[in-house]
């Protein structure tokens, strides 16, 4: 859905309405869901080549002029928080630590006030390769916590999946994130059949011993098409079977909008008690409670990670459109959000963009 393609009468209807009425402070869809969580990609570039995310040779990165500037990012974040009721923001990529002046973007977002009168909750998803150099500055700017991608603690397996031998850098990043107070530090691991499923217990043991929260993610159809099939993915039930070989698990409560189903892990002589989460987007989708809206690095709004429909906010942003008018475009596009991602539907079409181009 493009700004240029809106009929003139439709734009006039939106703009007149937004200029004479107060903001609704909500991004509500026709199924009764309201988005309070913004996922914003700061770059499509990445310094890893994870097999479930992109081809080993990488992708053609967005030209700089097509990427939102820092001022444009800040303006859209301000609109989201002050006019649309967003109270949680996660900065993603690609790899967001590659974005210049990231601490300034974080500081700007931290200085905003939500409709509840508080600063928005700010998180970052990162591969942590350079997190040791940035963690303290980001914490000082107002970042609350980090999620770190770590698919294996075995060096050869990590290098096989990421196509880079950088595990030692990730470990340093974890240490500095803990020291900087970016807690809880969560680890995100994609379960990949034939690659890392036999090391999931070691990964959980590592997390428990370090006081980290592990999240295992079912592989999703967001990378090269030949790398994913429903029949070959590792589902939640199998992940639980693997963990039950070594750990005692009991169901735990989780938030109404949490993508992860949580399990308490009983302590033992080998490790302290803790929790582990499984994000089963494929076998147990949580679409009915989804409260997210998304912005890509080139300023396209997406209502669903798995969707193929985008609404161009960059073009009106650069054309001098007012904040209220952009908020109205955002609200109207969000109203068209589908009830679910439809992966099980025979008509499902894998998104044209890879995960790194959308934002995690």
Structure commentary:
The structure is a single chain. Strand 8 (261-265) and strand 9 form a beta hairpin. This protein is of the alpha/beta class and 360 residues long. Strands 7-8-9-6-5-4-3-2-1-10-11-12 form a 12-stranded mixed beta sheet. The protein is built from 11 helices and 12 strands. The protein has one domain (37-357): Aldolase class I (TIM Barrel, Alpha-Beta Barrel), CATH 3.20.20. The radius of gyration is 20 Å and the shape is globular. The longest helix has 15 residues, at 70-84. The chain starts with 7 loop residues before the first helix and ends with a helix.
How would you concisely characterize the structure shown here?
This protein has 360 residues and is α/β, with parallel strands linked by helices. The protein has helices at residues 8-20, 70-84, 102-110, 131-141, 155-162, 167-180, 200-210, 236-244, 314-318, 323-334, 355-358, and strands spanning 37-41, 88-92, 121-126, 145-149, 186-191, 213-218, 249-251, 261-265, 274-279, 292-295, 300-302, 311-312. The chain has a single domain, classed as TIM Barrel, CATH 3.20.20.
Provide keyphrases for this structure.
TIM Barrel, 360 residues, globular, 31% helix, 12-stranded mixed sheet, alpha/beta
Largest sheet properties: 12 strands, mixed
The CATH homologous superfamily is termed Aldolase class I
| CATH architecture descriptor name | Alpha-Beta Barrel
Integer average pLDDT: 89
Task: Write down the CATH topology.
Answer: TIM Barrel
Principal-axes geometry comes out as globular
Q: Give the beta-strand count.
A: 12
The CATH C-level name is Alpha Beta
Helical percentage: 25-40%
């Amino acid at each position: 859905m493009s700004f240029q393609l809106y009929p003139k009468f439709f734009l006039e209807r939106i703009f007149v309405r937004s200029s004479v009425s107060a903001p609704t402070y909500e991004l509500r869809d026709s199924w009764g869901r309201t988005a309070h969580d913004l996922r914003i990609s700061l770059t499509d570039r990445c310094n890893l080549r994870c097999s479930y995310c992109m081809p080993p040779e990488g992708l053609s990165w967005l030209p700089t002029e097509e990427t939102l500037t820092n001022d444009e990012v800040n303006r859209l974040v301000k609109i989201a928080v002050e006019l649309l009721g967003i109270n949680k923001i996660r900065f993603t990529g690609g790899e967001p630590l590659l974005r210049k002046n990231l601490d300034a973007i974080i500081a700007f977002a931290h200085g905003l006030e939500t409709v509840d009168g508080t600063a928005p909750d700010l998180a970052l998803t990162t591969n942590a390769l350079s997190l040791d150099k940035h963690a303290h500055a980001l914490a000082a700017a107002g970042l609350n916590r980090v999620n770190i991608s770590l698919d294996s603690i075995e060096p050869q397996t990590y290098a096989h999946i990421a196509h880079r031998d950088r595990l030692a850098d990730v470990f340093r990043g974890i240490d500095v994130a803990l020291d900087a107070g970016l807690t809880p530090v969560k680890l995100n691991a994609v379960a990949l059949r034939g690659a890392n499923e036999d090391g999931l217990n070691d990964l959980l043991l590592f997390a428990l011993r370090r006081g980290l929260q592990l999240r295992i993610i079912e592989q999703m159809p967001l990378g090269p098409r030949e790398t994913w099939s429903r029949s070959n993915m590792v589902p939640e039930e199998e992940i639980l079977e693997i963990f039950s070989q070594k750990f005692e698990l009991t169901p735990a409560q989780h938030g109404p909008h949490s993508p992860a189903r949580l399990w308490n892990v009983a302590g033992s002589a080998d490790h302290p008690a803790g929790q582990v989460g499984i994000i089963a987007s494929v076998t147990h989708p949580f679409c009915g409670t989804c409260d997210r809206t998304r912005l890509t690095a080139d300023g396209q709004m997406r209502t669903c990670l798995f969707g193929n429909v985008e609404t161009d906010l960059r073009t009106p942003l650069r054309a001098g459109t007012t904040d209220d008018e952009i908020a109205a475009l955002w609200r109207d596009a969000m109203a068209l959000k589908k009830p679910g991602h439809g992966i099980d539907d025979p008509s499902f079409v894998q998104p044209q963009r890879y995960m790194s181009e959308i934002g995690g």
